[in-house]
Amino acid sequence: MKYLLSITLILYTCAPVVFAQEPPPARVKTKPINQREIAENKGFLGLLYYERVSNVSSEVAGLVEEISIRAGDRVNEGDTLVQLNTEILEKEILLAQTRVKQIEARTRHAEKLFQRLQSLLEQKGTSKQKFEDAEFDLLDAQLEQQAARETLAKLLLEKKKSIIKAPFTGIVLEKQVDRGDWVGQGKGLVTLAAVDELFVRVPVGEKLIRFIQPGQELAVTLNAFDRKITGKLIELAPRADSRTKNIFLKVHIPEQPMVAENMSATVFVPISNKKTLSIIPRDALIKFQGGDFVYTIKDDKASILPVNIVSYLDSDVGADNPYFVPGLPVVVEGNERLRPDQPVTVAGEEQ
Predict the structure, then answer these.
(1) Quick one: average pLDDT of 32-38?
(2) Which of 9, 43, 51, 161 is the most exposed place for a label (fewest CB within 10 A)?
(3) Which range, 4-8, 233-237, 313-317, has the best average confidence (pLDDT)?
């Protein structure tokens, strides 16, 4: 009992010391806030689409021997999409080549005979009738030679056309044939979309077009990946929706991996004239109780501040809170583990 009381007394005496210890200061990096003249913006939901879509078809009939692409594949201009069987065609080419050689030999013979009779006619050593017959035979051979060469050229072109290549760099949206299929002339084989003509079609209220103009850069978020990119407003559709009066914006975005037509994207469109806003790095933002907040440093401790976002930029946001002044440091690294009033040590400042 005596020993038990002694241990209890020691624990009671040491407890305030143990619980009074605080965790070491958190190491963070900060970045100063700056201000710029920008407009407020708002996110509008749009759909991705490829503007340039080609239904690649065959110019010749044939049996599909090889098709090495699948839907979703990226192909470069000039890459082979489909290879037709050319076995019979190659036999016809060999026959045509032989025919050309035969007629070339006949033409050379007819030309020599014509030249000899022409010389004899000048010396009155042959009749005019024989000379004219030789002239006709030479002309006939020359024409037949030209026809044979054109036939060979046509067969060689058919062989070339039996390899169907990509007309531009694009994404395979669909393939309509497979190995062993017979395709006729003009048969669609592959649906190809140009990767450099990827757009977002987004509807906005007609009263907002006063704040935008073609050529303007707009922040875009691909919702499936929460991927933030920058798009460029190309034009406004010349026809508004008759029911909603919305205007459709055509926003060009750079080539994106793993995207499909009709996926959604949020386009941030200006909804006001330009005003002075505080520019805050997106890396500084944290979610707290359903709102947007940032941590700043006050008396070597983390101080949390709410953020009223009124404009989304590429890697930043614009806020109109009056307490955000130029130069105020906000935590951009280490903020995900911070708690309000937690001691901090600034390990570095980004510019």
Answers:
(1) 94
(2) 9
(3) 233-237
The single residue listed with the structure tokens 């470069």 is: 76
Looking at the structure, do residues 268 and 335 belong to the same domain, yes or no?
Answer: yes
Do residues 43 and 91 share a domain?
no
Q: Tell me the pLDDT of the chain averaged across its residues.
A: 89
Provide the pLDDT for residue 131. 85
pTM of the model: 0.71
Which residues does 96 contact at the CB level (< 8 Å), separation at least 6? 148, 151, 152, 155
- End position of a domain, from candidates 138, 160, 182: 160
The pLDDT of 106-133, averaged and rounded, is: 87
Name the more confident of 32 and 128: 32
Give the sign of the dihedral formed by CA 298, CA 304, CA 308, CA 314.
positive
Tokens found for residue 261: 């037509």
CATH code at position 169 = 2.40.50.100
For residues 256 and 222, the answer to whether their CB atoms sit within 8 Å is yes
In this structure, the answer to whether residues 167 and 151 fall within a common structural domain is: no
Report the C-alpha gap between 261 and 299 in whole angstroms.
52
Q: DSSP code of 123? A: T
> What pairing do the DSSP bridges indicate for beta strands 26-32 and 344-349?
parallel
Q: Both 240 and 337 in a single domain?
A: yes
CA dist 335 to 327, 339, 340, Å?
18, 8, 10
> How many independent structural domains does the chain possess?
3
